[in-house]
Amino acid sequence: MNKLLSALAAGAAAIALSAGSGLAQELPQSMAVTAYDVGSSGYAQAVAIGAAFKNNEGVTLRVLPGKNDVSRMVPLREGKVDYSFNGVGTYFALEAVDVFASPEWGPQDLRMTNMAMGGNCLTVFFAGDAGVKTMADLKGKRVAWVKGSPALNNNTYSHLRFGNLTWDDVEIVEVGGNNGAFDAVLNNQADAFFSTTTSGNILKVQASPRGLVWPTLPHDDNEGWTRLQEVGPYFSKYTCSEAGGNPPAWEGASYPYPVVIAYSPSDADTAYALTKAIFDNFDHFKDAAPAATGYSLDNQVMDWVVPFHDGAIRYYKEVGRWNEETQAHNDQLIDRLNKITGIWKSFMDSNPPSGDEFKDAWMEYRYNELEKAGLNPIWREF
Predict the structure, then answer these.
(1) Which domains does the chain have, with CATH numbers?
(2) Which of 32, 66, 171, 183 could form a disulfide with 81 if both were Cys (CB 3.0 to 4.6 A apart)?
(3) Tens-digit pLDDT profile for residues 274-308
(4) Could you report the per-residue pLDDT of 60-103, keeping only the tens digit for each?
């Protein structure tokens, strides 16, 4: 009798474990995410993934558009959305720089699950009538600067550095959001703006009387690349093969966009399920949005500048994309974040100045402390 009861108990436990594992791999029936404005490739990709989820997983994915990094991050921080299809502003939030160098922000404990690394590039484009062919030619030209979007602005700055220029060498045109920058170019108020080459807005500029030019960033220009990566370490040399108007491939720069992110404490089972669902549904959305082919498993960059979520790591281990090297790199990124978080806490405990003086004081303190720790501060804004 005891043996029978033991066997029944063991069987029940096995069934419960199996059921629990299955449930743990399921997504919630309804999820919300943020993405860039309607018209951006990131928004189009999120909607395409949402359609695939609805058709194949029975999951409703609500996509909330945001015009800049802050407007996409606030709902995530406040728990109003589950994930964000974000850009390199994620890295800025980890580093507590630019708009995240404020008392309201500081270093954010973020992780990613998936990314898009397609044939598109992320680069500065020029209006065709601006007489600009290289980055160096932007000297004295009108360049869009997006309020509240450190990612876009630092990306533009990185490209200016390739041409041995700074913001002081161009005429800054302030705009209110991603779409506002395109409008500024269309309305002949700006001559250049940073974008992904597959944005729907790109076709509008190409079809306008001004036209559009994609610049090259020659991969053998070592000095230019050194200057670019000093301020944009998340960029790498990339052959651009996907762009509005289907131009011939050219040498440029890129990084993953968008990256699907959440805060580190978010549920690991859900992160695992989301990671898996995106790959499982890849064939259903890869052709439904510009550059959506970048979500393939083979295109995942396992040693980028943002750490992976524990739930995502579980999936990548299962499919053989995780090893000792990727774990060491991920640990290194988290260690850097922990150091920056500790530096932030020490700074905040030191009764820092308020108002406009806060950012300069934090950036100087951050720079000096990271140098003492033997880490590259990357940003110097004081």
Answers:
(1) 30-117+257-335 (3.40.190.10), 122-254 (3.40.190.10)
(2) 32
(3) 999 999 999 999 999 988 999 999 999 999 999 99
(4) 999 999 988 899 999 999 999 999 999 888 999 999 998 899 99
